[in-house]
Backbone:
């Protein structure tokens, strides 16, 4: 089904009004998300110790910001990329019961990001994690969780449009579920990014299942570290993957727009399988991985939802620098000024 084309009013908020609107988006969505998934907000770390395996490795190639600690015999720490694994430790430490979870206000630095209207080196996410039963490690539970998150997103969009009447809601009522293998079969001549653009244009919002494993064409749709999301388990549908991304159509940028990466987390079997597939068996000796392999960590589902991405989308901004403070090259500042974009 083709998504409806909605006429969006071109009205700009000033910088101070934008700051207020960004806070409104974030607080409204955090409340809706917490209610939908039964989450309690907890504190988040800015740094973790190097060599523990706790930091998120993202695609496995990004370099964290590292530094020595003077008062700790120069022991090294690093700025977080995200809290994908740290949150699972917190579920155990806080003795969170099955069916409940936590959410954090995560702030990260990713210096290897390519600067663009969608990416800066500063990343802010609502990082969430929820305890589940072993029997709940299913595609059905994953989809049900995605639907609850999407309804929180829709509720936030409604509240934003009620508060700022120049902003017209545009997201479809329901989110569509697609598998990365199906997307490849549907658009065999397109690369991964072009396939996402085509699907977002057609459906308006979709959850792309199965990211991290090799597809039928011998390539991955996108990279995933081997030690948090389960992307290699074969489901009842006969396809691999208990993870995915929430992607929507951005009517301002006229392209696909990823809002969230999430999934059911690896158990001991999936961890070892994925470490072997990625030739990363040396990670078994890390503190985090040893806890998981000994069965001391709870089964969980979790993910990260970009705060600035969310504000950018719902406030219908052209550049992520309009809704967060970061650093940009002179060329980016000049291009923004030419287009009338107000970087914070």
Residues:
């Amino acid at each position: 089904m083709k998504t409806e084309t909605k006429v969006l009013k071109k009205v700009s908020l000033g910088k101070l009004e934008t700051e207020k609107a960004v806070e409104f988006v974030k607080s409204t969505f955090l409340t809706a998300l917490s209610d939908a998934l039964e989450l309690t907000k907890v504190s988040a770390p800015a740094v973790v110790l190097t060599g523990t395996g706790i930091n998120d490795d993202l695609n496995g190639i990004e370099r964290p910001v590292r530094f020595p600690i003077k008062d700790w015999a120069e022991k090294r720490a690093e700025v977080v990329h995200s809290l994908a694994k740290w949150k699972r430790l917190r579920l155990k430490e806080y003795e969170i019961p099955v069916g409940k979870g936590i959410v954090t206000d995560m702030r990260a630095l990713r210096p290897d990001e390519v600067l663009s209207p969608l990416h800066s080196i500063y990343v802010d996410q609502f990082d969430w994690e929820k305890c589940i039963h072993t029997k709940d490690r299913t595609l059905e539970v994953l989809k049900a969780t995605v639907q609850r998150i999407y309804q929180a997103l829709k509720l936030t969009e409604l509240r934003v449009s009620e508060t700022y009447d120049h902003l017209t809601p545009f997201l479809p009522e329901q989110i569509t579920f697609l598998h990365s293998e199906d997307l490849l079969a549907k658009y065999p001549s397109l690369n991964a990014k072009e396939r996402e653009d085509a699907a977002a244009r057609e459906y308006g919002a979709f959850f792309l299942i199965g990211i991290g494993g090799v597809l039928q064409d011998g390539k991955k749709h996108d990279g995933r570290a081997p030690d948090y999301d389960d992307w290699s388990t074969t489901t009842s549908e006969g396809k691999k993957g208990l993870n995915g991304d929430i992607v929507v159509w951005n009517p301002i940028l006229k392209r696909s727009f990823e809002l969230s990466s999430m999934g059911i987390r690896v158990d001991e079997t999936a961890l070892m399988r994925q470490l072997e597939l990625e030739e990363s068996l040396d990670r078994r000796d890390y503190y985090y991985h040893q806890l998981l392999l000994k069965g001391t960590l709870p089964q969980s589902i979790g993910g990260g939802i970009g705060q600035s991405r969310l504000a950018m989308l719902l406030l219908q901004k052209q550049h992520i620098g309009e809704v967060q403070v970061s650093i940009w090259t002179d060329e980016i500042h000049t291009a923004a000024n030419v287009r009338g974009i107000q970087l914070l």
Summary: The two ends are 38 Å apart (CA to CA).
